[in-house]
Amino acid sequence: MTDFNPELDLYIERHIKAKPETVWRCWTDPKLFAEWFAPKPVKITDIEYEFRPGGKANLTMTLPDGTVMPLEGCVLEVEPARRLVTTDALGSGYRPRGEPFLTAIIEFEPKDGGTLYKATALHSSEEIRKRHEEMGFQDGWGTTLRQLDELATSLT
């Protein structure tokens, strides 16, 4: 893991009852991914993840008020069922994009028959980190982790 900088980064971890391979399946199967990735009732569609360095990390979020938020990014690192790193600073093929919001580091550690799921959001400035925190990082990402835990546990 990269060095955590509290002025720039946000972090959350949870124990998920399912094994890392099952949690990874929830990331890599678009149908499953759509079920947990955003707090309900936000809808996730147009999922295009290519789990290889330089691959797409794209999706569309539709908020309850009808706001459509296309998200586009790039996969930087992949270790199946162990680690996934993505960023919106780059598009697929490492193509530079506009102003970045975050780089996400997701780690899956086998623990107590399940998975210690660690998520770190790296930001380029204190202002962007603060904006992400004020958007509800802990609550939003915490909700998605509860949804992920419920889904992954139901698959075992």
TrEMBL record:
Recorded hits in InterPro entries, A to Z, give: ASHA1/2-like_C, START-like_dom_sf
Q: Which domain of life is it from?
A: Bacteria
All copies of the Activator of Hsp90 ATPase homologue 1/2-like C-terminal domain together span: 17-151
Pfam families (alphabetical): AHSA1
Which family does the record claim for this protein?
Belongs to the AHA1 family.
UniProt protein name: Uncharacterized protein YndB with AHSA1/START domain
Source species: Silicimonas algicola
